[in-house]
């Protein structure tokens, strides 16, 4: 499985191309990237809090849910829906992501993180492959299987530029 | 009515044969300009409950990135971690 850290999921950095490629990759490969429950809950909670259009926010969350998945499915008993109750601090999300990696180390094929310094020791001990979004993008270029995916992605961007 | 739980943008090649045929037939019905921009992707909508169930499968124009761009809503903000 592919695991992502909070910053790889959503951030205001300049990596929209690389982040979009990850979404494209997950969609084409029909895969979902996993994250700690607390990261997903915070993402849901904050998206709903920050958005004026609540229906639109629910739809966007559903779109993200199609690409990213928390470790366990937590539904409320009454409506059988995911219900974010609170947000977690950056430190808590980091610790929970570490715990998730530690418990699932043998199933992790790749951990994508924008803050490798937080996880370097753990990944070294457990031998978990770690990459940033940019490294993942570059790695796909050198991988025969994924190069075709990247070519299609580039062609799409090229086509857009021509329009 | 149940809320939407999950939306997946999936390429038709990754779907079973009968769904693939349905997607192409739906894309044809939508007219020439849709067909021109149809890249084989479909939007699969799942509704909330456990277990979740598929509500609809519909072809979309362009790829997943185009879908995200086209569906950007003004009142929706994604947090930054």
Protein model, in words:
The complex is a heterodimer of chains A (163) and B (81). Chain A is α/β, with parallel strands linked by helices. Chain A has a single domain (2-162), classed as Rossmann fold. Helices cover 58% and strands 9% of the residues of chain A. Chain A is built from 8 helices and 5 strands. Chain A has helices at 6-9, 16-28, 37-50, 54-65, 90-104, 120-126, 133-142, 144-162; strands at 2-4, 33-35, 68-70, 110-112, 130-131. By secondary structure, chain B is α+β, with helices and mostly antiparallel strands. Chain B is 32% helix and 27% strand. In chain B, a hairpin with a 5-residue loop joins strand 2 (41-47) and strand 3. The radius of gyration of chain B is 14 Å and the shape is globular. The termini of chain B are far apart. Chain A binds chain B through residues 6-7, 9-12, 20, 23-24, 27-28, 30, 39, 42-43, 46-47, 50-53, 56-60, 62-63, 65-67, 73, 75, 79-82, 90, 93, 156, and chain B through 3-11, 14, 39, 41, 44-45, 48-50, 62-65, 68, 71, 73-81.
């Amino acid at each position: 499985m592919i695991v992502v850290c909070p910053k790889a999921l959503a951030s205001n950095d300049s990596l929209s191309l690389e982040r979009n490629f990850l979404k494209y990759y997950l969609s084409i490969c029909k895969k979902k990237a996993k994250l700690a429950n607390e990261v997903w809950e915070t993402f849901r909670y904050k998206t709903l809090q920050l958005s004026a259009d609540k229906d639109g926010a629910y739809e966007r969350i559903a779109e993200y849910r199609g690409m990213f998945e928390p470790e366990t499915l937590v539904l409320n008993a009454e409506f059988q829906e995911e219900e974010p109750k609170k947000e977690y601090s950056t430190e808590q999300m980091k610790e929970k992501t570490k715990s998730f990696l530690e418990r699932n180390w043998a199933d992790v094929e790749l951990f994508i993180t924008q803050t490798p310094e937080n996880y370097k020791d753990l990944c070294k001990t457990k031998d978990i492959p770690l990459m940033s979004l940019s490294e993942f993008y570059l790695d796909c270029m050198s991988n025969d299987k994924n190069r075709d995916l990247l070519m299609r992605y580039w062609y799409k961007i090229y086509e857009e530029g021509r329009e | 009515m149940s809320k939407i739980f999950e939306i997946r943008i999936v390429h038709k090649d990754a779907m079973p044969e009968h769904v693939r045929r349905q997607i192409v037939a739906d894309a044809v019905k939508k007219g020439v300009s849709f067909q021109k921009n149809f890249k084989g992707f479909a939007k699969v909508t799942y509704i909330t409950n456990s277990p979740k169930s598929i509500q609809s499968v519909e072809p979309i124009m362009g790829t997943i990135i185009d879908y995200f761009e086209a569906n950007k809503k003004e009142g929706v903000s994604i947090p930054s971690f």
